[in-house]
Design a protein that fits this description.
This protein has two domains: 133 residues, 2-Layer Sandwich (Nucleotidyltransferase, domain 5), CATH 3.30.420.40; 172 residues, Nucleotidyltransferase, domain 5 (2-Layer Sandwich), CATH 3.30.420. It contains nine helices and ten strands. The protein has a five-stranded mixed β-sheet, sandwiched between helices. A five-stranded mixed β-sheet has the order 8-7-6-9-10. The structure holds 5'-O-[(R)-(carboxyoxy)(hydroxy)phosphoryl]adenosine and zinc ion.
Length: 339
């Protein structure tokens, strides 16, 4: 049997990272990401600025991805792009670019759900062990927090979700209260390494067994800070490491409690994590501990594939290409696309 190599260009522009990647079958040849630093001074992503930056970045990012992969546009077999969910103005840039390029090159267009991309990042071939079906994926990003029962590549059910903030938002909003820059998740992770996770206690939400809630944590932190700053105006500065460690510890406990509930309910002990928050070192090591203590099989993505990237879009593109699951040229971006 002659098997043809399939080369896909993946494009991701759902939030504030412009990314392009080239994949050959399941192996990544390049994965270029342009972060938008402009949002830092506003303490969060400003949609209008994000879409403008995507417009500036998309051509150079795609050209660089092709250059690093050492291929020409003409060698690309299909273009995969993020259709949603995400910010409309941001999604439109990637969608329009992908549509025009597929038309110009006369090659198929493949639409990808961003959240599915995060999960499918586990199937990028880096020589690692890949999860067997079925498995449970804890998908934790800036916009979503979900427990997904993954039955097959394209058969996934969301069995648990947050009823308010996402885990990434919980990190970012807590960081903002502490006066840290956006995005605060990586900074909390950094300071937490030096602090005591049990220094401050925060209450846990009372919600259904597969539901998450993080809005109470934010109010809890705010109340603590306001109370303590009345006594000592340097409270945050003097306790930053302990505050970060305690906040991170609480978020991880909430996440893991729900994963444990999902394991009990489904009997599935194969657990994967995905999305920006899966880069968190505390979450990664807490899961590794569970692997040992509870006999779980844990799958943790490579750092490069945790936060937003086009490699994860390209791997979905590859699997959709194999099924000839191509998009119609009339496809449009969808801000609220379900898994
Ligand atoms: O998946 P992602 O890049 O974008 C979305 O699809 O939302 O996730 C971004 C989120 C942000 O909230 C960021 O603070 C968080 O992931 N994040 C982290 C870490 N790295 C990124 N949160 C905690 N610890 C980290 N190391
Ligand atoms: Zn994401």
């Amino acid at each position: 049997m002659i098997t043809k190599n399939i080369t896909i260009l993946g494009i991701e522009s759902s939030c504030d990272d412009t990314s392009a990647a080239v994949i050959k079958n399941a192996k990544i040849l390049s994965n270029v990401i342009a972060n938008q630093e402009i949002h830092q001074k506003y303490g969060g992503v400003v949609p209008e600025l994000a879409s403008r930056a995507h417009q500036q970045n998309i051509v150079p990012v795609v050209n660089q991805a092709l250059k690093i992969a050492n291929i020409s546009k003409e060698q690309v077999d299909a273009i995969a792009f993020t259709r949603g969910p995400g910010l409309m103005g941001s999604l439109l840039v990637g969608t329009s670019f992908a549509k025009s390029l597929s038309l110009a090159l006369n090659i198929p267009l493949i639409e990808v759900n961003h959240m599915q991309g995060h999960i499918m990042a586990h199937f990028i071939d880096e020589g690692q062990e890949m999860p067997d079906f079925p498995f449970i994926c804890l998908t934790v990003s800036g916009g979503h927090t979900q427990i997904v029962l993954v039955k097959e590549h394209f058969n996934m059910d969301v069995i648990g979700e947050t009823i308010d903030d996402a885990a990434g938002e919980a990190f970012d909003k807590s960081a903002k209260i502490l006066g840290l820059k956006y995005p605060g998740g990586p900074l909390i992770d950094k300071y937490a390494k030096l602090g005591n996770p049990l220094a401050f206690k925060f209450t846990k939400p009372r919600v259904q067994e597969l539901e998450f809630s993080f809005s109470g944590l934010k109010s809890n932190i705010l109340q603590l800070i306001q109370r303590e700053e009345k006594k000592n105006s340097a409270f945050i500065k003097e306790n930053l490491d302990d505050l970060c460690a305690s906040i991170q510890h609480t978020i991880i406990e909430i996440l893991l409690e729900k994963v444990s509930n999902a394991v009990k309910l489904t009997g599935i002990k194969s657990i994967a994590i995905a999305g920006g928050v899966s880069a968190n070192s505390g979450l990664r090591s807490a899961l590794k501990d569970k692997e040992r203590s509870h006999n779980w099989k844990v799958f943790i993505p490579k750092f490069d594939y945790c936060t937003d990237n086009a490699a994860m879009i390209a791997i979905v593109g590859y699997h959709k290409y194999l099924k000839s699951d191509f998009a119609n040229s009339a496809t449009t971006a969808k801000a609220r696309l379900k898994l």
